[in-house]
Amino acid sequence: MKKSILLLLFIFITFTKAGAQTESKIPYGNNPEAGHYKEVNGIKIYYEVYGSGKPLVLLHGNGGSIKGHTNRIEYFKNQYQVIAIDSRAHGKSTDTSNKQLTYTQMAEDVNVLLDSLQIKNAYIWGQSDGGILGLLLAINHPDKTDKVAVFGANLYPGKKAIFTEIDDVVKKTLKETKDAHTKNLYTLLDKQPNITDKDLQKIKCPVLIMSGDRDAIRLEHSLEIFYNIPNSNFFVMPGATHFGSYEKPDLFNLVLSSFFNDPFKKTSTVDLFTGKK
Questions:
Q1: Is the pTM above the cut of 0.70?
Q2: Could you tell me if residue 276 is inside a domain?
Q3: Which residues contact 63 (CB under 8 A, 6 or more apart)?
Q4: Which helix H or strand E contains 208, and what residues bound it?
Q5: Each residue of 223-250: pLDDT tens digit?
Q6: Residue 269, C-beta contacts closer than 8 angstroms, at least 6 positions apart
Q7: What pLDDT is recorded for position 19?
């Protein structure tokens, strides 16, 4: 079986299992009681809202949807007003333009949606591509971001950020696929994002950089993100892949809850030894 097909199957199986990790009668991702459409930037964005309190926005990865957030929604809806969003051309959100997807446009969609809901200073969590959107929101729309947590995000495409074997599969899929939607999604992975260290240095809110120790993103690349955001923490999940938030949901929920609920700290060991703190 071709590597590209194996990758697609792996992603599909992972997200399917993620949606089934928590037994629930609620059809997350297709729930008429919580689901809404909003006209945003010429498309219809689908989103679902659960709970009350501080807004927590959930952003999925490439090819994903709200359904993959089942475990997170179940856990966090008792603490926050959870707003789960299907990105443009994902899930139930539409995009009839046939234009190439861009992370900048997708982040703008989230920004406009939050404006329409009169939401500012939200907590943001993003998986993979959703993490990229979270970083872009923090860079370009700081009024929307109180705290941002990202798992497996990258600043730029290619082998310096992503392991060679995975980058090769992305390029191979682009050469082989005849499906327009798949081509659009994989072109997004192959050509974007284009976030600079200077862009990261503009971020003022606290950011939690999360990674699996066996992630698709090189650990040194995640460290680059961490080192360039002034107010950031870094968490590496042991024994975890790019999908660590699904593989170890209890650990993930514990770490994310601590980041959102506890006062942000960045005191270093150097600070302690030199008496600066």
A1: yes
A2: no
A3: 11, 15, 90, 185
A4: strand 207-212
A5: 999 999 999 999 999 999 999 999 999 9
A6: none
A7: 46
